[in-house]
Amino acid sequence: MCLGIPGQIVEITDAAKKLAKVDVSGVKRLVNIACIVNDDHPVESCLGDWVLVHVGFAMSRIDEEEAKKTLDLLIELGEAQKELETMSRSGT
Amino acid sequence: MTTPAQGMRKRSGILRAEVINMSHGGGGKAMRDLIEDVFVGTFENQQLDLMEDQARIDLAGLNTMGNRLALTTDSYVVDPIFFPGGDIGKLAVCGTVNDLAVGGAVPLYLTCGVIIEEGLPVSDLRRIVESMKKAADQAGVKIVTGDTKVVDKGAADKIFINTAGVGVIPSHINIASNKAMPGDLILINGFIGDHGAAILGARGDLSIENDIESDCTPLNDLINTLLAACPDVHCMRDATRGGIASVLNEFAIASSVCIKIKETAIPIRSEVRGMCEILGLDPLYLANEGKLIAIVPQARAETALQALKSTDAGIHSAVIGYVSESPADTVILQTAFGGERIVDMLIGDQLPRIC
Amino acid sequence: MKYVDEFRDPILAQTLLEEIKKLLPTIALTKERPLQLMEFCGGHTHTIFRYGIEQLLPKTIELIHGPGCPVCVLPMGRVDDCVSLAERPEVIFTTFGDAMRVPGSKKSLLQAKADGADIRMVYSPLDALNLARKHRDREVVFFALGFETTMPSTALTVLEAEADNVTNFSLFCNHVTTVPTIKAILDSPSMQIDGFVAPGHVSMVVGEAPFDFIAEKYKKPIVITGFEPLDILQSIWLLVKQFAEGRCQMENQYARVAQKDGNPPGLEAIAKVFQLRDFFELRGLGSIDNSGVRITDQYARFDAERKFSVPNIQIADPQACQCGEVLQGMIKPWQCRVFGTTCTPETPMGALMVSTEGACAAYYNFGNLPELMALKAEEEKTKLKEVASN
Fold it and tell me: Looking at the domain C1-316, which fold is it?
């Protein structure tokens, strides 16, 4: 049971029931946000958050920093590879 | 007062009931009122006005248009009967018109057989029939004969419609599923999966808010434009149930070739994509009602593409792949990630995944 | 689509493939004894096939598809129990879509639906609860299955039912646990797996610690992995790097979603509503200690097993079925004696062919079937020759 898809919270629909509306590429669905609220992140602060949606629940906030780190690492790897290739071609 | 021989008839039937009941299918006055008021009154043409048991069509006229008669039939049982972008009536006309047109035929006449579940509101029926008339006018076809049955509550789901269609194929046109050749290019006239996604969205039980509309539309104008620019279309079919994956497989098997398509070349609306991602569905298998796949010789592909793009129903046309020799009978997708996988025929119904 | 398209980038894929190719020569591998990596989770299996990842990898890396597909490990007897519940006239039986096709000993839920049972597909357990609110005169039963990923959603739904005093709602609980299942595979004598691609969404719920033992005790590198194709390729690279550098650790590739301590509200809900069963049957793997959960006594009124009586009969797999061996990675799907012949997606014998996540269905649908059947025929010929010469 792993199908989770990233989406953005675009509306807090029912704060008491912890229900919010999430947008996935233009389609929207109601999700329960109980798993991502706590004292540091009350219900209202979730507006605009990117979350992992799974069977009608927002299961985790997506960490933008970590996502960027992961991709940057790969981009750097790619650049290092290109450099090595250029060096070896120039006959060093 | 005019007589039947002059082609006009004084129609007296008026349907006053608000809900369809068994007597409307009983063969008596109630049924006659229904037919005269709702069907004949809306479809409005000479053949229907005559109220004969059969439509009579002049053969000599048909013979001037081509050398083959095209005949097709389809039954329509869609649920819900009204959905964003159309309804069962529009579907019943467009689907059958398109089945004729993709064979290169000029669609001319349709039949309309309905099976109505008792209890259907007459207002719903009128709405559906008006929708059929509108679609028929858009496609330039006439609905010239039909049949009406009413069944007990529970014996049908609101309304089922069967339409058969007749058209004529011009002698110089030769489109067949077994004509795809290595080197040919594969074209589609726009976004995939709109109809399937609209129906899923309209069913409500998945509670996904969306603005997706069915792409249901007659394609004969688009096909005329295409054939005028590229008469040598090898294969052509509309991609209805089973999506473009099914049509591509049908062509690959009939022509004994390999069809290779590129995921990044296939037009898809971001909303349809979003719905597929949430539910774990593959858009290649979603139904369409206004999309066709055309396989054309490479040399004519650019002309064919521009012709498609010049039509309303083909603005977002694209080349999505090509035909090669092997592995035969197979459809291969080059994924957006760079890998390749086989696209097989759909087995059973696609069910949303959770995994 | 944000956080999706970037992780499907084909150029970054090529970068990773280059790095993997560079590292492989430093590890002693052959085509006969390749590096065998198991992806445990059905969601990972699906991504691998959907994006053709296996063909992109060098032949010295082999991917073994594990049993982390809750639909695949559903025993036939439990399906029979579902059908029995669904056939009660007062019950509205709600289920996720992919469970509907699994065959029981007589029929699947889809067939039971055709026969008249009120079975409805839902996207979320909350939808099932809403049905219960709407139809107070009926009993709504939700078929709860899944590993830890789905347990919080089921548990939170029960807590909401309790808060709203909904009495006509219950679960038929088939949740299974990841760690005992992986442990059963690791303890299997014929196990030949070198490293693990670990389920990122299970980790999203339970955190990183539960997977430590795989690296520490069993000395197998393990990487917690996301579900986009780049995630899987990156994890394979990280595993290969560990082998090349002589390390054996647990790493987290999916830190953007799976945090070290998991999901506290989710874990809290699980602890309230569920407790471990002493043992539970997983189809193809047999009975495994602590591999399933049941509803606690405090929430017994939401337990369909206690509310209604179910047949609860253990049904043996068909003789010819080799699902167990495929699930443990001992044989490839096409090596199963009935693959592609008696067992096909139209006429499935076992769950691995029915479920869209099942390795067999994936090979059948996405793989090159004529090639696979030829390989199968070759192997059978070789086996016959061996038997004849002995």
Answer: Rossmann fold (3.40.50)
Residues in C closer than 8 angstroms to A25, CB to CB, are 1
Interface partners of A (3+ CB pairs, < 8 Å)?
Answer: B, C
Would you say residue B5 has pLDDT above 60? no
CA C21, CA C7: separation in Å to the nearest integer? 20
- State the SS3 of chain C: CCCCHHHHCHHHHHHHHHHHHHHHHHCCCCCCCCEEEEEEEHHHHHHHHHCCHHHHCCCCEEEEEEEECCCCCCCHHHHHHHHHHHCCCCEEEEECHHHHHCCCCCCCHHHHHHCCCCEEECCCHHHHHHHHHHCCCCEEEEEEEECHHHHHHHHHHHHHHHHCCCCCEEEEEEEECHHHHHHHHHHCCCCCCCEEEEEHHHHHHHCCHHHHHHHHCCCCCEEEECCCHHHHHHHHHHHHHHHHCCCCCEEECCCCCCCCCCCHHHHHHHHHHEEECCEEEECCCEEEECCEEEECHHHHHHEHHHHCCCCCCCCCCCCCCCHHHHHCCCCCHHHCCCECCCECCCCCCCHHHHCCCCHHHHHHHHCCHHHHHHHHHHHHHHHHHHHHHC
* Percentage of chain C lying above the pLDDT 70 cut: 99
Report the chain A residue with the minimal C-alpha distance to residue C122: A55
DSSP-derived secondary structure for B42-97: HH--HHHHTT-SS----HHHHHTT-SEEEEEEEEE--SSSEETTEEHHHHHHHHHH
Of B340-354, C214-228, C248-262, C268-282, give the lowest mean pLDDT range.
B340-354
Domain ranges, residue A17 = 5-89
pLDDT at residue number B9: 54
Query: pLDDT for C173-225, tens place per residue?
Result: 999 999 999 998 899 887 789 999 999 999 999 999 999 999 999 999 999 99
Contact call for B353 and A55, based on CB within 8 A: no
Which chain C residues have a beta carbon less than 8 Å from that of B348?
101, 345-346
Q: What is the pTM of this model?
A: 0.92
Domain spans of chain C, in order of start = 1-316, 323-389
Q: Which CATH number belongs to the domain containing residue A10 in this structure?
A: 2.30.30.140
Q: Do C204 and A70 touch (CB under 8 A)?
A: no
Q: Measured in Å, how far apart are chain C's first and last C-alpha atoms?
A: 60
Q: CA-nearest residue of chain C to B279?
A: C123
Residues in chain A: 92
Q: How many distinct structural domains can be found in chain A? A: 1
ipTM above 0.90, yes or no: yes
Q: Which domains does chain B have, with CATH numbers?
A: 22-169 (3.30.1330.10), 185-342 (3.90.650.10)
Tell whether the model's pLDDT for residue C18 goes beyond 90: yes
